[in-house]
Design a protein that fits this description.
Structural class: alpha/beta
Number of strands: 14
Number of helices: 16
Distance between the termini: 54 Å
Order of helices and strands: HHEEEEHEEHEHEHHEEHEHEHEHHHHEHH
Strand content: 5-15%
Length: 377
């Protein structure tokens, strides 16, 4: 079993991560994804103002007319459990790696991934009181006091996990070292590995995987229904304000930055950022310039893209001391419409590409920051 699991192909996100002190670019987590750069925000658009509903604000006549950075903030980050279910166990599932896992006890749950999506899903299913620990990305208030099982950013700590005596672990391949996951299995803890992909196309699938493994499929179905309805309502509101013609839409890039580590990546097709850009009614420049996956940014790519708007994680923008610092580090970006107007929209690292139960709220906050920035500035 161990050799089969170790040979499992590492996901693109994990390849971009680093777990060394020098932040060798093997994956995002070790570069600080979702980790606070500093308790005090050092740049960007400040703490930001919670976004109202897009349908309740007056959009710009032309979204290109705005100058200045905007921080997108979800109005309500509290947990709203969809049910109070009692898990029906045992259940046997075949996880995303093809491993058959039997879960007999869901009284002490660990749900761990680089975005905190899995823990949020468990809480929204109504099983938050069973969660015994968290990763650094799980930062919403209901889970904030739980003990951490990650160290040095996103490294799983075997001793910390074992001390919590979990009866089941839900995770994916976005955290490491992987031998810690194998160690948990060797210790007899059921470990269910779910899909590592995060995107609008698999929110329901991921929710189903979590709910099924915990023996609460009905709660999973209810959460999917609620999330789908919320996303549909926001997308309808976006359709009312976004230009119909692609040529009129804001040319948009997603830039991932960790200034303290010298990491500057463009997220392109099949990265999850492409689906986000499309859902916001924006024009995905990455497709036009043939930018697939996640690769180090180049001056040539920026010049070719000529973005009107750049989406970022708040921690990334803060790590370069805000827009001014970013433009100093990437001079080519300063000579684009986005750079000239400082048209950057950033959002909490653990939310912007999490694609979980908060997807509707995330889309709404981003859409307000794009189309009605005066409402939150």
């Amino acid at each position: 079993m161990s050799s089969r699991v170790l040979s499992h192909p590492v996901r693109p996100l994990r390849r971009l991560l680093t777990v060394s002190a020098t932040c060798v670019v093997l994956g995002l987590a070790g570069c600080g994804l979702s980790s606070p750069v500093d308790p005090e925000r050092s740049g960007g658009a400040g703490d930001g103002t919670a976004a109202p509903r897009l349908a309740d604000v007056t959009p710009l006549t032309d979204a290109r007319d705005w100058t200045g950075a905007t921080r997108a903030v979800v109005a309500d980050d509290s947990v709203d459990p969809v049910a109070e279910p009692a898990p029906r166990l045992p259940v046997t599932v075949t996880d995303a790696q093809g491993t058959r896992v039997t879960v007999r006890d869901a009284s002490r749950v660990l749900a761990l991934d680089v975005y905190g999506t899995l823990a949020r899903t468990v809480f929204e299913l109504g099983l938050g009181d069973r969660v015994v620990g968290r990763d650094i990305s799980t930062r919403f208030d209901a889970a904030a006091d739980l003990p951490l099982v990650t160290q040095n950013g996103h490294d799983l700590a075997a001793e910390a996990i074992l001390e919590l005596d979990p009866t089941v672990i839900l995770t994916d391949t976005s955290l490491g070292p992987w031998n810690v996951v194998l160690q948990m299995r060797d210790a007899g803890i059921p470990v269910v590995v779910v899909d590592s992909h995060r995107g609008l196309d698999n929110v329901a699938e991921l929710t189903t995987q979590v709910a099924t493994a915990l023996g609460v499929p009905e709660a999973g179905a209810a959460l999917i229904e609620r999330t789908d309805a919320e996303v549909a309502a926001v997308r309808a509101a976006i359709a009312d304000v976004a230009p119909e013609a692609q040529t009129d839409r804001l040319r948009t890039l997603f830039l991932y930055v960790r200034g303290q580590s010298g990491v500057y990546y463009l997220f392109g097709e099949k990265s999850g950022a492409d689906g986000l850009i499309d859902a916001l009614g924006l024009y995905d420049v990455a497709e036009e310039i043939g930018w697939d996956g996640m690769k180090p940014v180049t001056d040539e790519a920026i010049v070719a893209a000529q973005p009107d708007l750049v989406l970022m994680m708040s921690g990334g923008l803060d790590s370069v001391d805000g827009v001014d610092g970013l433009l100093e580090r990437l001079p080519a970006l300063a000579n684009t419409p986005a750079g000239e107007r400082e048209r950057f929209v950033d959002m909490e690292d653990s939310q912007i590409l999490g694609f979980g139960p908060q997807t509707g709220d995330v889309l709404n906050a981003l859409a307000v920051a794009v189309y009605a920035p005066g409402a939150v500035s």
